[in-house]
Structure formats: C-alpha cells, structure tokens
Amino acid sequence: MQRTLGRSVVITGLGAFTPYGVGWSKVREGLDADVRAIASIDGLFPDVHGRVAGCIRDLAPFHAAFPDVRPPYPIRLTRIVMVAAHAAIADAAIDVTAPREDFGIVLERGRGPTPVVVKAMEPVFARGPRNMSPLLFSQSVSNAPAGAVATAFGLRGTHLLAIGGGGMLAAFDAIRRGDANAILCGGFDEIDADSFLAAERNGYLHATADVSAYRPGEASSPGAPRGEGCVCLVMEAASTARARGARVYAELAAVEQGLDFAEDGPLDRGATEGWGAPKAASLARYARAALDVAGEPIGSVGLAVGGASGVRVIDAAVHEAYRSLELDRLGVRSLKGHLGEMWGAATFASIAWVADSLERRQADCATLGRGRGVEATDARVALVTNLEFQGQHVAAVLRRSVA
Questions:
Q1: Residue partners of 130: CB distance under 8 A and separation at least 6
Q2: Mean pLDDT of all residues in the chain?
Q3: What is the C-alpha to C-alpha distance for residues 361 and 365, in angstroms, rounded to an integer?
Q4: Which three-class secondary structure state does DSSP give residue 175?
Q5: What CATH fold (topology level) applies to the domain 9-243?
Q6: What is the pTM of this model?
Q7: pLDDT in tens, 192-201
Q8: Residue 8 · residue 235 · CB < 8 Å
Q9: How far apart are the first and last CA of the chain?
Q10: Which CATH superfamily does the domain covering 251-400 fall into?
C-alpha cells in the first residue's frame, strides 16, 4: 500500500464553479453563512418534479472568463470545468501565458458523459449515422473537459482523466516522482434528468422536496442530495512553489487509496440503498496508512472531514471508522449536506476546504452530531476520507504550511 516517493507536495491554488458561484471564496462564504447550495430544481428538467439538488443555473461566468471563445461553445459540463480551472490557476498566480511542459492536468469524474452521448446518438437511431453532429461526437468522449482545459491553458505535462476515483492519488504521485512540477487536479459532476431519475429508481438516491431533510450523519436523513459542479486544486512541488514565492495553503503530506469491496447484502433500500455496505475497517485502514506515510500519529490530527452523505450505510461506516481511530472526539465534518453528493468532486472539495481552513486557522463546516459554527482552530494536521465509488476508499493527510 505504501509507496516510497520523493518530493514534498503543496497546494497553492483553489478554484470552484458550484451552485454557490465561481471561486472557492463563494463556497467558503456559503459555508460561513450556513447557506445550502441545494434548492428546488422544479422546471429545470423534464419529468423531475418536487425535488431538490445543487444545480448551476447560470453559465454566464464562462463567457466572462473566455470571451474569445465563440459558438459553437463546448458542452455545458466542459464550460463548468473550464471556469473552475481558470479560477484555480488565477488563485495560484501561475503564469500560463506560454505553454508549460512541466504543468499537468489530472481530473476525475464520477461517471461517463451520459447526456451528450444520448444527445449525439438520438439522430443516429432516428435517421442514420450520417446525421450525427461532429461537434457532439468530439464532446462525447469522457476526457473532453480535460482536453479543453489543457488546450486553453497550454498544460502540456502529465494528462489523465480518472473515472470513479483515483485522480488525487495519481496527481500526488506524479509530482512526488518528478513527472511534473505542477498539476491542476480536480473533480467534476453534472446533473441530468436521466441519471437523476435512474439513481432515484435504483435506490441510491432518495430524492425529496425538503432541503432541510438532508442531514449527513443523522439517521432520519432520506439519503444523499445530488450536487454538480467542479472543484480544482493547483498542486506543486514544494521547491517549485518556494522558488516562485507562491502562497501555500497547506502541505499535502500523504494520499492513500484502494478498493475494498462493499459487503454483500439484500437490496433493502432501508439498509443498503442498493449499493451494499462499505467496510468501516477498510476506511480506517487507509486512514492509518496515510498517517503512517505522513509520519503523523493519530493523536496529532486536529481536524477531520469524512464522506458522510446522508446514506445510512455510508454514514455508519464513517462514524464507526472514526470511532475506531478515536477521532470522533473532533466531531467529523462533511460538506455534502451543503454542496450535495458530487461523486467526482467530493474528495477535492473536502481537501480544498481543509487546506483553506488550515491556512486561515478557521473551521466552519457542518460537524456531524455536534451542530455547526465558525470556530478558530490551531489544528496543524488534518485528515480527509471519502468513499469514492462503492468500495473505493481514499484518505489524505494535510499539514499546515510553516512557510
């Protein structure tokens, strides 16, 4: 599980495009004010009524950030990702006016590009293959958003798209090995009517019209609210960041990730939500492994963010894992009650929030079982865990920068 690698990695830029708006500061403001990004989506999608989710309703920020891009514009999801990437690179104050061979991109999405594939294939099935739009075909590949960002900013280094998990680990290892000096790393998700309804019907999503009903960590929560958007980090080798005088949010001291299949069980929606039960022992094992790689004892952790979402079996696993690690003393936080469940972006959002909190010495996200509120924190070490796809666990350790 552990890997022997070289260089230290730091986080120097945060960017986001979520229902809160553009930029990580908008997410922070929403959390500070305890305002959820989840709202009614009536009228946004056909056949979806009486439901709430975290949806981006205005793509005007894309035109503001990329005024030279003319119709036909990239698909909606690509525009969302490009705006978040633009915000992260600007926040890191990295010069990308010329192509960068040492600057890579690693993005992660929770699933394939279902909406654009469906749209591209409809005329094919109706009138034959000669009627497929070449533009839609080019956007139907999973890595279209990553390619658009790499092209727009001249990122010629390491280039990877991960689906279902693994993006953070790949970017972290690439910088430590010396494959790149900097990597734009992030995750993204899009809500569409077909996948929304499918998730509800297969038992993973228990949708409701009541925003307040979604409370990660509480047994009464009906499940996980859906969310969409993109969260990006700029990760750099510490030596490179120091050489250019960059502001450092935090050191990313360790990332551990692996697949441990969820326990089998009946498809009882009240017990498993149709996905099986994740193993608390596995989540704790990867957390301990990340702390070991970082050289930090469990007792040094002063801030913890778990992946509780309102899905009972997931929340129970998070609680049990943190109890076994004796980290329940901290109150385990989760962003998903405010941002919604973003399968591709959740890990990156949690890491961004922790890095920002360490740099500001302030924590202000929902604490499971203890209410919430802005509080000062002297935490030097933080732990982030998440269940990325059924049995795939990720754990990251961050340290407050001493620079």
A1: none
A2: 87
A3: 13
A4: helix
A5: Peroxisomal Thiolase; Chain A, domain 1 (3.40.47)
A6: 0.91
A7: 888 888 877 7
A8: no
A9: 30
A10: Thiolase/Chalcone synthase (3.40.47.10)
CA 41 – CA 33 distance, rounded (Å)? 22
Q: Give CA–CA dist 256/168, Å, rounded.
A: 9
What is the DSSP secondary-structure string of 231-298?
EEEEEEEHHHHHHTT----EEEEEEEEEE-PPBP----TTTTTTS-BPPHHHHHHHHHHHHHHHT--G
* One-letter amino acid of 71: P
Mean pLDDT within 329-342:
86
Q: Regarding beta strands 392-400 and 250-259, do their DSSP bridges make them parallel or antiparallel, or are they unpaired? A: antiparallel
Domains 9-243 and 251-400 are alike in CATH topology: yes
Tokens read off for 96: 């990308």
Question: What's the rounded mean pLDDT across residues 51-71?
Answer: 93
Tens digit of each residue's pLDDT (9 = 90 or more) over 142-181: 899 999 999 999 999 999 999 888 999 999 999 999 999 9
Q: Which pair of tokens denotes residue 130?
A: 């000669």
Both tokens assigned to 268 = 């009882």
Pick left, alpha or beta for residue 62 (phi over 0 → left; psi -120 to 50 → alpha; otherwise beta): alpha
Q: Report how far residue 104's alpha carbon sits from residue 157's, in angstroms, rounded to the nearest whole number.
A: 4
Closest CA to 292 of 381, 380, 353: 381
Instruction: Give the whole-angstrom CA distance, residue 158 versus residue 287.
Output: 27
In this prediction, residue 2 carries a pLDDT of 46
Rounded CA separation 238/172 (Å): 12
How far is it, in rounded angstroms, from Cα 286 to Cα 318? 12
Alpha helices in 100-143 (DSSP H): 114-127, 134-139
Locate the domains of the chain by residue range. 9-243, 251-400
DSSP-assigned states of every residue in 39-94: EE-TTTSTT--S-EEB-----HHHHHH-TT--SSPPPHHHHHHHHHHHHHHHHHT-
- Calculate Rg over the CA atoms of the chain: 20
**pLDDT higher than threshold 60 for residue 273:** no
